[in-house]
Protein 1
Amino acid sequence: MVILAPSLLASDFSNLEREIKKVYMEGGGCAYLHLDVMDGVFVKNISFGAPVIASIRKVCGIIFDVHLMITNPIRYVPDFAGAGADIITFHCEACGDSEEIWRTVELIKANGKKCAISIKPKTPVDAILPFLGELDMVLVMSVEPGFGGQKFIEGALDKISELYRIKTEKNYGFDIEVDGGVTLGNLKKIKEAGANVIVAGSSIFGAADVAGTIRRFMDV
């Protein structure tokens, strides 16, 4: 099953409850909401943190797919778990070494949440090979993290295909998520490469007819 995860970062922050209902209740029907947490250190921009997530948790039951683009992610795992995250994704590049990656994975699972690792465009799949058997999801960044509205980097398709091959050969259970520059024009090849969780921000929240755009995404 392919899951669409609209990125809240592209929404109108003046009324987050209204924006969430566009994709969750008012004909949208999306299963996930992608929440980009940025600290101004790991990436240049700053977005929002656990208090905002805790606030919007009160207004919907959609699955919160929380993407931590922050340094020292292990320090904040309990905060985001407590705020209502269902899936917590952290960047392997934000960890000092493999031991820290393992400890972060273990802490996310100890908090009862699904665990995902993300890789930036220049990071090879090899960097996360030892962890794949323990993950619920892998997030392939198809743009440089930290900014919305970027163009899709075609090299991400090779990573998605490689992850799908490994997943199939090893009988692993992780989902393959892709984030960055996803549009109706490139969605088909992304899906064919093996991705089954699709993050889209501007393409959905920037549309005049959000519910209709979601239906067109799901038709693909």
Protein 2
Amino acid sequence: MSVFRVKSDFLNLRSTPDKTSGANIIRPLPLAQEVNVLSGAPTDRWWNVETEIDGKKLTGFVSAAFLRQPVSIGKESLIGAAMTEWLRFKQGNGLEDDDPYYRFVGQYWQKLGISLDGRDTDQPWSAAFISFVVHQAKYSSFKFAAAHHFYIRDAIEKQKDGVSAPFWGFKLGNHKPQLGDLVAQWRETSVAFDRLPSGGFKSHCDIIVELGDNEVRAVGGNVGNSVSIRSFQLDSSGFLKPGKVFAILRNNN
């Protein structure tokens, strides 16, 4: 059996290889869901697969065009952890003010050893989200912090010094985005890669979970007051377009 991953938000698992009717839909499979291919040639439109969700094994047919080859175990672990939170937040529809979602935010803070319970919605929690997901993926030597600039600066410095680290920070034109990389953006005040402010700076990162020809899609916390996926445009050479995006953190796992 060959292992693949779902590369769209939701891919319908069907009891028969036919999409003319919704009656044969077993259930949608979320982005990054692992499937084992039981049968199907590379040129076939439909593949017979099996997968496991919530402890239940399922078999059926999926469109092969919406599956991708897996990347490294470390990258898949990070993507999987991020997708787990996205699903917990109802694909961006669960809002931070509501129960149980504020409790999930509280878990992010608690993993950092910070005594916030998630109801402190004036406190930005996007970096706590990244730290939580990286921790769930069992990465070591990460600069876990309540603010993005700590680990962004660390990744850039480690790259310049050639020091081993889970992420290395690059200029946008020096690394094409890949699954599991982080998209670094400035907030409120412009930040330049080669001239990072000496102190802290307001910033944000999202985790790339899907690659396209003209864009990548990435998941982040405290995006629209939830855990949400959004798109970042690529230029004609396949690099991230600048703007608020000022660096890309390459996943070395």
Protein 3
Amino acid sequence: MIRLPIFMYHHVSEPLGLSVKGMQVSPNEFEQQMSFLFQKGYRCLSLPDVIVNFQEGKPQPERSFVLTFDDGYFDIYKNAFPVLKKFGFSATVFVVVKPVEDGVPGYLSWQQMRELTRNQFIFGSHTLTHPRLPSLDTKTIGRELDESKKVIEDRLGGPVDLLAYPYGESNEDIQDMAYKTGYHAACGVTLGYWGPFNLWRVPINEHENSLTFYWKASGRYHAYTSLIVETYIGSKLRAFKRHIRGKTPRPFLQEQ
């Protein structure tokens, strides 16, 4: 497992309302987080470099991290980009294609993405329409993966090798389809078993404080998640939590 944190952000903005509650950090908080990483000597790696290291069996550099942003919102360009440029960091942005193509306000434009590409940003697919992939038929899933890849490649003039599953949801069949579509790796969250086509990420949101951010940057978050997701004890803990909450797991999350 890749122990270094692959941070997952969405909005870098002031609070935007209930529809995105928990999915944003303020520009000031974001700068404080990046300043912490810089001051502590952490190294920002590109996601492709991390994947190559893993595939070649090379250890990841100590005190390193990866930045990713989901959806492709304009505030990445407005609020995150200047901060990252200040500290010499870059990121991978996973774009939902249809709202960008339709010119929906609040999303990056292709022109802005091209500028970010010239500043070492990498762009991947977050599908065409951001659906829950496990709920779709195979043909529709294939279209979401393939057409989004082709559109981004056409608009930005380069290969698109990386995918992030909407809501972090996938299964073995979807992961296999991603591989066959031509992606080199895919990101989830902490659902299902870890693998190159289900890279776990560390969510960062408005609820972070200095202690939780340090804990997540240290790599301990992955150790905790591995215990919860991949062990017998963890399965029992999850079952207990579901019982307490009165919930049942989604089918794709059930243990094989």
